[in-house]
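Memo to structure team: turn this sequence into structure tokens by end of day. - J.P.
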Amino acid sequence: MGKIILVTGGARSGKSSFAEKLALKIGGSRAAYIATAQIFDDEMNFRVKLHQSRRGKNWTTFEAPFDAEKKILDAGKNFDAILFDCVTIYVSNFLCAADLDDENFLYAELRGLIEKIIDAAKNSDAVTIFVTNEVGAGIVPENKLARRFRDLAGLANQMLAAEADEVFLTVAGLAVDLKKLNANR
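Reply from structure team:
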């Protein structure tokens, strides 16, 4: 039975660095990296290369902008730790490919996608660390697409947090164990 860890935080909060160190600690200095980003422009190419520059030969990358559950199950056969980076990009990929006219369809489909990656992580022999962005701490976005993204990413985060064995919030490079904090109340 696989274990799920969720690492969330704002932009540049240190969540990916924290998750990478955690994955290598769990994986005995080698881990699988599930990359969800698609490169469409120079800025995204720069961001992908920045993330790659932190990882060396200890990492095996699986590209999964869609159907990530298959990659989680594949990676779990050979690695003790899987780093899924990131959930919000995965949600963005879904949103960009979806029919935006039917709100109920969007929510139902997203729930199904997140349930699939949760089930895959639980059925894997590895620890799966999901990295995600905390997107609900700002003002309500001005446009409909941005509000949808915020709401769907929030739903995905809540679903993953509910099933996670551990949940960490990163702020300014520091990680707080939210489930432990919540258990102490």
